[in-house]
Design goal:
Elements: E1 5-13, E2 19-28, H1 32-46, H2 48-51, E3 55-60, H3 77-85, E4 89-91, E5 99-106, E6 109-112, E7 122-124, E8 130-134, E9 139-147, H4 152-156, E10 164-166, E11 172-181, E12 192-200, H5 206-221, H6 224-232, H7 243-250, H8 261-269, H9 275-284, H10 292-302
Antiparallel strand pairs: 1-2, 2-12, 3-9, 3-10, 4-7, 5-9, 6-8, 11-12
Helix pairs in contact: 1-5
Amino acid sequence: MQNSNFYCISSRVENSGKLYGCFKIGPFSENQSLTFANSLRRTLLADAELHLHPFIFLQIYGIEHEFSSIQGVRESVLDIIANLGSIRFQKIQPITKPKIAFLNFFGPGILQAKHIHLPSGFKFVQPSQYIATVEVDGVLMFKLFFSPHWFQTEVKRSKLKNLFLIHPVSIIEKVNYTIKAEDPMLRLRSNASIFFEVWTNGSLHPQKVILNAINKLLLEIFPYSQIISKSLAKASTLPFADNLALEKLLNLEISNFYFNFEIYLFFKKNKINKIIDFLNFVKKNKIDALSAELKNFYHFIFSRKIKMH
């Protein structure tokens, strides 16, 4: 890619609460645009870690199983679980620990999403979203447990009874892209740019989603540069072989890289501010203790033959 650019062309909030964003990436030389666009689209649609809601567990007062019925409530427990699963939440702050939302609703009335008392850091995309109809003699009481992906096992092992898992839904609704040549008269031999269109359900802005996907894609590809470098050149001819460039890389701030919030917490907890801090940490600890994303980052750094002394 030559003279790389990434910027937003347009964005809007649609009537249904969905978010739309169009982004220009490029220009790329020759057919590289198609290769990159396909890879990025597949990453967006296939990688669950990029676009799933936090795991949500439901506990309904007085209910033992999902096939039960609730007196005075028109919907069955299965219908309520399905309606709760369709609610779209927007995270104002990243989830670092489990949080609880609760509801005590007395009939008669129509229960909507706005009646649920959410914990701090959450808000509804559509507060008027329908959940259930409660009759005069009906009472519906439940709790929602929001947990990060890494905390799912701990919640399942807890002593809380009658927990129902509300399966997370994809935040990404649709992804399209168009490739346009900088000079249409030259067709395939011309530099081309990618115009990426992303629709989300309103929980995340399309720009954050696409930046996460680009970061994930690059971290997956970088480790292979080590294998390619070995076959094409000797260690002495690799990039960063001179001391000045090596010193600049080692002292590069971690904040220059795009990681998720949990990894930034990991860096802060272990006082890792620069790449050299990260390499020193790996030297003292086993690499197996790192997450998959951090392992890829580590292999990317070492693909340049950086050795700690």
